[in-house]
Amino acid sequence: MANDRPLAAHEILDALENVSDNEEDYRERLICILPPPVDPDCLTDEDSGEEDNVTLNNLPRNILLQPAEVMIQGQIMVSDTEEEPSDSTGRTKRRRTYAWRKRDLAKNPVNWPDVQGACQDKRPIEWFENFLDEDVISLLVSESNKYAVKKNLPGDITTEDMKCFIGILLVSGYSWLPRRRMYWENSPDTKNELISSAMTRDRFDFIFRHLHVNDNLDLQDKYTKVRPLVTLLNKKFLEFSPLEEHYSVDEAMIPYYGRHGCKQHIKGKPIRYGFKAWVGATRLGTTHDNTFIIAKWHDNNIFSIASNAVGINPKQSAKRFSQSEKRNIVIEEPHMVSIYNKYMGGVDRSDENISHYRIGIRGKKWYMPLLTHMIDLAEHNAWQLYKINHGKLDHLGFRRRVAIALIESNRKNAKRGPSRPSHHEHADSRKDQMNHLVIPQSKQTRCRQCHKKCLTRCKKCDVGVCVKCFETYHS
């Protein structure tokens, strides 16, 4: 898709719709949209329409106007230019610039153990709390309450509320429903007793609408809304996770840094493009704050790699066949490439495992997928540590144990009053004209038709129906 400027998300959607209308193309498509710019005068956290129906066609306007790229079965299709995108008024949007240094990553040597010490007999919830501990929960509670207060609403979310809320999110990964309110609906095919008895629907919606991470916005950082949680969890992942299962949440931001920042030392074009050099050559760029390094290494093909833990030194020797010399030669292999080759596959395995039970409750805030992915990732890494310590549960069993523990230990035990039945209740079976009989009942209930108190019910439908409404209700 070539154009004189980066394609916006809505333009990619229109193009894909035209392709699907004219051709039989069933390849999987993944659309990646950059976050909207930080604007303190605009409530970018506000949603557009109902969150229950989250599709690409009804995303908020400020997200649909952002630059995007589409990946079709592994092939990235984007515009070829690097001009600054403009908003609907034609003004050029501000983009953060980064000071890159042509130097190695200065990090202390990391000892990556294959096993996390001696075998530890912990419950699944204890492994999970290695990552989502009190520090993380306190951050979510305090920032969410600040955000609610700014909207003139009570900031009364408690630690127990947040833990129960996270437990419900985990349940939605393996007990998925198309609309989140269906978990509380009085209908036998959807109602989840564990969820509906632990937290009211309105309370869950309140926490979901005001879930927040950062109130101190950095206008130069597009990821400022999730940065504190990213930093906090990243430290815990580095501390607890074995390397083959380690995944830094900062890696989600590397495509942005690579395309829009690291150019001065990676010759002219974004990092996804190649460069002409001899076999074994390396080009690199390290962020000014020594956060991570992006490098290219000329193997038989161009190899692009990023790391926030190791750099290119010390280099190792590697044998390669030289097409020009028609013989094996020895070249220098960066240390980060050696580490990658030794432990590669962990991120792919992590992504696959998470995809099986990914949190199913979605919202339209652009950062919500990042927040829910961090929770999924914490649960997955906790399961990996559990397995290393000879745990017997599979991933689903482990996730269920964690979710149930979070909900049952932090649920509200207040007695709920009567609620309205679902409008889908007996919608078809009550009209089948088969075996519907009026029987007496000892306790008064509300008639399903006129809502007055009655002492009779339908034997088959098992609901209160007064005699005068019996025929109407069943016709």
TrEMBL record:
InterPro entries: PGBD, PiggyBac_TE-derived. Residues 409-436 are annotated as: Disordered. GO terms for molecular function: sequence-specific DNA binding. Residues 422-434 have a biased composition (Basic and acidic residues). Residues 412-421 have a biased composition (Basic residues). It holds the Pfam family DDE_Tnp_1_7. It comes from the Eukaryota. It comes from Parnassius mnemosyne (clouded apollo). This is PiggyBac transposable element-derived protein domain-containing protein. Residues 124-282, 288-383 form the PiggyBac transposable element-derived protein domain.
